[in-house]
Each structure stands twice: as C-alpha cells, then as structure tokens.
Amino acid sequence: MGILVDNVSKQFGDFKAVDQVSVEVKTGSLVALLGPSGSGKSTLLRLIAGLETPDSGRIFVTGRDATYESVQKRGIGFVFQHYALFKHLTVRQNIAFGLEIAKQPKQRVQNRVEELLELIQLQSLGERYPSQLSGGQRQRVALARALALEPKVLLLDEPFGALDAKVRKDLRAWLRNLHDTVHVTTVFVTHDQEEAMEVSDEIVVMNHGRVEQVGTPADLYDNPASPFVMSFIGPVNVLPSTAPLFRQVGESIPTQDSAPVFLRPHDVIIELHPDQTTVPATVLRVIHLGWEIQVELGLEDGQAFTAYLSRETFKRLNLRSGQQVYVKPKEAKSFATPLA
User: Fold this and answer.
1) What pTM was estimated for this model as a whole?
2) What is the pLDDT of residues 257-292, one digit of tens each?
C-alpha cells in the first residue's frame, strides 16, 4: 500500500474543504489530484503530508496509520510551486541540506548529491545559486532536494504552475521519466487537465471537496461518470438535446428533455455534401492550431459548436468562413443515456 485516505473530512470555519474523501494510491504509482480552484485538492495533499490534521477519517502512509503523525515522521518529500530554495546556498548545498540536518556521514552526503545532480541533469551547475538558474532548473533542484532523503512518498503542489508553457511541457516529460527511474509513490496537484493526462498513471478528479471519479486518463476521457468530469477532462460542446445535430442519432437522446448532450470536438464529422444522416451548418471561423484545425460552426437554429480536424482532413475539405457544410456526430453522450 502506498497511501490510503479513508473517509477524510476537513473544514475551515463554515467551508468544507474536503468532504468524506476516500482515495487509494498504489505503491510506486504517480497520481494526479485534478480539479478547479477550491475543489479541495491542495488541502487533501496537505492532509497527506501532515501539514493539516483531518477533522475525521484516517490516513495511512505505506501501511502505517499516519493520521496524527508529525510531518517529520511520515517519510514524505514535499515540493512547492515556488521552489522554496535557500537563496544563500548553492545548488549542491540546497540538495545536501536535509542530509546534513539528518547528520548523514560527509561522504554519503557528497555521493548522494552527485547522484542527484546527475539524475536532474544539472551536473555542471552545482556551484551556482538559485538566482543564477532558470525557473525549470530551480524546480528540478527542488525535486532533487525532496528526493535526497529517499522518501517513501513524494508530494508535489502545482509544481509547474509558476513556469511558462514551453518549460512546463518539457518538465512534464522530464518528471514522468524521473518517476520511471526512481519509482517513488508520487501524488501531485494540478488544475491543468493536459498536464494530469500526460504525466499520471491515475487521476483523482475533485469538485467541491469531493471525489467525482478516479481512473486512468483514457478511462476518464472515454467513460466520464458525470457531466462535471466530461466537461473538465478535455474539450467538449454542450448542446440541448433538441439541437438539429442530434435529430438522426435517436428519437429520444436523454430521458429528461432538459438534459444537455455532450459532444467532443473530435467527434464532429464534416462533409461537403448532404445525406440523410447530416444536417446543414455554416463555417463561422477557422483557427489554425498547428497540429490540428479548430472549426467554429453554426446550426440553422443559431446553436454554435466546435469541431477539431486533422490537417489532412481540413486540406481535403478546403473549408473557409461562410461556407455551408453538412455535419453529424460520430459519438455523443448525455447522462441519461449514452449515444452511439
């Protein structure tokens, strides 16, 4: 067992930050806590770390009841969003800090620091100070410092939130490779869906202090358990069941007339000629995203929605603003009944 959170709740005044949450993190796995601001993900991470005490429930770390254990006794490494490096210490000294506090032998400290510098690929920068590093390099040093004492669990709180998009993308791949090397049980908090899907083995989706769904990135994308999960994991169009786009899909799409229908942009089929399964639409706007094309479309009843096309499909269709096309859903979903 890596981490077991058993029916944990935490309240701050009148605000219930975590509400009867139960989650299991398997040993050696990398799990993301994903949700919007205020969903309880950071509070849950702090509860696991011992920085907060639950009002009710139990927390087990590596099979041991750690609910009321101090931070120091939990054997946990913690990495914050803003690095928290010591500005007056070099990279080597920052990484060595925890080892020296633990009174490790000098040779052991030196060997471990060199090993970690190689792991984070900063061997030549050991004598620099944090102010002389880029944001991505500082975050790698913070990770090395957290790993120095060989923690059983590594917790990351929005680790890439302060970095620009390109650096974040690079560090996501680096973190995944790092995890595959060290295999430490890891939990990280993020509000970035793409980040969670790219890095993690499993994702815990949180909303209003509760767990909405737990699953692999593919499970959550393909089989969302609720409208919130479908809306939060990946792009989606939300349209009324009365939209003409769904006329040919089934006579009664949801069982309740008011239930919306969720349609992924990748599941919109665009044709140049009508048939009995399509409805007319107008191309409102074409946006080139590089690796794919985003097409904004409007139906005759005024409903607007988005389609994503590959470059090859877009080139074949040769779409332009104002053009009339014919569309149909390949797959859509309501939470009254699934659509084929």
Assistant:
1) 0.87
2) 567 899 999 999 999 999 988 999 999 999 999 889
Residue count (the chain): 340
| Residue 112 region by backbone torsions, left for phi larger than 0, else alpha for psi between -120 and 50, else beta | alpha
Tell me the per-residue pLDDT of 238-259, one tens digit each, with 9 for 90 and over. 998 888 787 655 444 544 556 7
What token pair was written down for 89? Answer: 């210490």
The answer to whether 4 touches 60, Cβ cutoff 8 Å, is: yes
User: Phi/psi of residue 301, each to 5°?
Assistant: -85, 5
